[in-house]
Specification:
Radius of gyration: 15 Å
Strand content: 25-35%
Largest sheet: 7 strands, mixed, barrel
CATH superfamily: PK beta-barrel domain-like
Helix content: 10-25%
Number of domains: 1
Number of helices: 4
Length: 183
Amino acid sequence: MTQPPGTVVAVSLGSRHGVDKANQPFIRLLAGLGVEGDAHCGVTVRHRSRVAANPDQPNLRQVHLIHAELFDGLASVGFAITLGLMGENIATRDVDLLGLPAGALLCLGASAVVEVTGLRNPCTQLDDLRPGLMRACLGRDPAGEPVRKAGVMGVVRAGGDIRPGDAITVVLPPQPHAPLRPV
């Protein structure tokens, strides 16, 4: 089952560890690794806290995607956040990233495919960018459960170049769908 296509708004990478990533005219996704030249590219974990816990864990956070609608919402409450500043590799529009099930495939551009592995857990580094930003990226659903708004993480299943303006097609996995959990 597929959903209506979305759009890539911006692509970013950062060769060093830190929250922000520089916008690029294109990024290259490498199957099984992530974004070429990005500090988080690799088969095993690259996020420093996860490396410290167990450097042999599989890297389920090769690509970070954020819906541009989050930036719109943050701006409406006083947070002027530019694309790439929150560490995303790909900013999307018209894709309900947070509503996707685990295992959903995002077909990006001509050939790239990213499998969604889970939610990004907002961290305190966001407050280093703007005080209160982490809290603004968290919420509660009607049942009082936490809602993490800072995007999703994924692994690259098929490589390719991605540019702003590229189409995004979502392919849902077979039922039953598993909800996204933080990775």
